[in-house]
Amino acid sequence: MNSIPVMELHSSTEINTKITNTTCPYCGVGCGVTATVQDTALGRKVSVAGDVNHPSNYGKLCIKGSNLADTLGLETRVLHPMLGRKQQREKTDWNRATDLIAHKFQQCIDQYGRDSIAFYVSGQLLTEDYYVVNKFVKGYLGTANIDTNSRLCMSSAVAAHKRAFGEDIVPASYADFEHSDMVVLVGSNTAWCHPVLYQRIMKAKAQRDLFVVVIDPRFTSTCEAADLHLPILPGQDVKLFNGLLQYLAQNGHADQDFIAAYTQGLEQALTHSQTESSIEDVAVRTGISLEKLQTFYEKFAQTEKVMTLFSMGVNQSSQGVNKANSITNCHLFTGKIGKPGAAPFSMTGQPNAMGGREVGGLANMLAAHLELENESHQQLVQNFWQSPYIAKQAGFKAVDLFHAVESGKIKAIWIMATNPVVSLPDADQVKRALEKCEFVVVSDICLDTDTTQYADVLLPALGWGEKDGTVTNSERRISRQRAFLDEPEQAKADWWAISQVAKKLGFSGFDFNSSHDIFVEHARLSAEQNSDLEHRAETPYFRYFNLKALSDLNATEYDQLEPLQWPVWTKDQPDGAVARIYTRGQFSHADRKAKFIAITAVNPVNQICSEFPLVLNTGRIRDQWHTMSRTGLSANLGSHRAEPYCEIHPHDALKYGVKDGELVEVKSKWGNCILRATVSDDIRRGQVFVPIHWNDQVASDARIGKVVNPVVDAISGEPEFKHTPVMIHPFYSQWQGVFYVRQGFEKIVQSSIENTVWWTKITTAKAVRYELADRKKFTQTTEQLKELLPFQDESFEWLNLEDQTAHISHSVVLKEGHLIASLYIAPKALLPDRDWVASLFKRERLSAMHRKALLAGQPMSMANNEGPLVCSCFKVGKNRIIDTIKEKNITDEKQVTACLKAGGNCGSCLPEIRGLIKTCQMEAVE
């Protein structure tokens, strides 16, 4: 079932229902989604559920996917092409906009050469968009200056795969986690970042004796159900896995037959890792106890079926490629690859990072897994495209790309579906680059992001629910992402926009009428001078990436395409036949052998010092995605971790004078941020953790990218997001406050509120909430507040309470019995419960008791205080869960679900619930 219209009758009102199977636009798990659109006389309603037939998730969705319908509004969208930077924007039409782009590009080529133009694109693009833009840039503009934000999350894994296997391949599938006897999660908070796959692993663990190891500097939600947590020091992964390789060699755990038949380079790898021959030394260097290290090494050695899932904690490093190869070395040494339940597994961050790799989305790649700097590969692609030019050398990778923009080497740049002013390291450098750039084009769905304000041309792209094509997830599974909503106003597909500019530059080869046309061409290129495994010897260009059987799909077959994994050699290929690659050896190198990579462990490039004595680690949180342009629209997704925060160990907090819940400045030599301190034992001393999501649209000073170390891996170009030397200081303010304003009124107060020194903007169900702080003393009288908050006509009713001696000021604004706004200035401990205030905006009218409570800033009864939200699906707070655990003597998270429903939908909160159960049990023992 792909897109089925259904007619229903309900209460004499006709309901048109359309059900569409598509895919989730968030992480690399690639979950199938069923979208239901109902059109009635009262309007349109969209609901989202997991696709029970999709093999990536079998109906499961995380909290982000479950709330996709909240993100489909057009309020924040760019819906027309626009010219001019933010302050001088004017609407235009597509013809004028594409004329200008083509003219500027041709001007740059004529004056400065082809390499003066660059593109920066995204793993949010569909494969068809990705293919067309890479064809245009590398085959027609003739430059490789196109990179993608996937550079920031998985390019180290790509380089490691190519070094070890000869091709960028994840050699296993999700089903292998269900066959494994040991799962090692390295540098991955899987429970929060890939929750559906994590729940799959946890289900396998519950059914049999699956041993789970988590290697992470922090104790995260993923660690709650782990059998072993190794709290490694940042940057020491190579030391750990080189040590494992030495342990395996010293204790006779080599698979000699596999090594002899299918590998090369073992002797050099063992020689380079000899400094890790002492397990005691490895324990000291990694910060892991000798006992835990011994347990991990023994368990890996003695377990035949081991899956090692690695993610951003490995990739985002100045040693990311070597980290990944130190993992593959251990699997090759023991033959733990190409077998059920045994493989290294790179988990990508974005929904189509793998699809981007298929079409050569990175600056050092050609399409169809061909080599950019290989002359015969260049010729193959150029002949296939019949293109006038072909890129012959690697272009600038992401960080270097924006340095080239700032230095003037790049004169024009087109940014698609990404927000580099937030997401790149040393992000203020990106700001400087775009400010100076002669010509900036941005294609986006959002009118206002930190990046769109620098656009000379802003183009309206299609969003999820509107665009049509394919994506490839982390297990090489291609799925259709189908449109179920009409294109809004003048928004267009990214491939269409590129094609229009290409035609205006006089290029043929871009007469695509649909995503189907593009996909078929993409599939044909994958099969060009390629073969299946049986005929491998007959072609010099063999690669496993091959979609030959899909290269003649008609439009109907494409529309009905079911999820499948590549390679797709034959049409009658059984489902799951290629789920596991390298089952017969047959690696992708010309000699068909995998390569051990000789690696020497080194420390991170920038070390801590007296000026910057702490290590900053960055990453995602459970309910948000990248820079919040989509998830930030959902009130449900803003309730779990509402504010940007800095997690710090209690001893460091004491040492640097930081208090839990107060504001703290995090500073590096590249920049600084102001965040809310969260004091926690879950992080090691000497380290701090900050989420990546907040930007200048939702917070005054929480864009952590401007603090992050811009050093990159010398091979992959992936930045070091996990190891930035920083200092922290308390951020003292004269007052703190919280301000709520009903949705629809927020724009008239926005400039006034955002004049405070520090603020964070949070979406709730009916209102926008601002957390505020300032270093200036709060001295406004009621009359001055009325000037600040422009609800001045007689239709607004004001309630005020002031106590200057206690530094308290409460103001409430009503209109016709509805709560319009509330402002509380008070010592932090006396500020009201945020969820309680938000709940009052949902009421039709406020009673006299509610008015009194609002003015007092405290509910008349605290009996229903849920506390911080844990389960976003069913709105269950920490206090209610703890009370239930204690009252019913609960020992298992399933009992909590039975009592409160918490954890019974997406399961993202189950690790947190397990942690609360453990805490309650420890308190009972004490």
Automatic annotation (TrEMBL):
Pfam families: Fer2_BFD, Molybdop_Fe4S4, Molybdopterin, Molydop_binding. Coiled coil: none annotated. Its cofactor is Mo-bis(molybdopterin guanine dinucleotide); [4Fe-4S] cluster. Keywords: 4Fe-4S, Iron, Iron-sulfur, Metal-binding, Molybdenum, Nitrate assimilation, Oxidoreductase. The keyword Iron applies. GO terms for molecular function: 4 iron, 4 sulfur cluster binding; metal ion binding; molybdopterin cofactor binding; oxidoreductase activity. The keyword Repeat does not apply. Residues 17-76 form the 4Fe-4S Mo/W bis-MGD-type domain. One of its GO terms (biological process) is cellular respiration. InterPro entries: Asp_de-COase-like_dom_sf, BFD-like_2Fe2S-bd_dom, BFD-like_2Fe2S-bd_dom_sf, CT_Nitrate-R-NapA-like, MoPterin_dinucl-bd_dom, Mopterin_OxRdtase, Mopterin_OxRdtase_4Fe-4S_dom, MopterinOxRdtase_cofactor_BS. GO terms for cellular component: membrane; oxidoreductase complex. Belongs to the prokaryotic molybdopterin-containing oxidoreductase family. NasA/NapA/NarB subfamily. This is Assimilatory nitrate reductase catalytic subunit. It comes from Acinetobacter kookii.
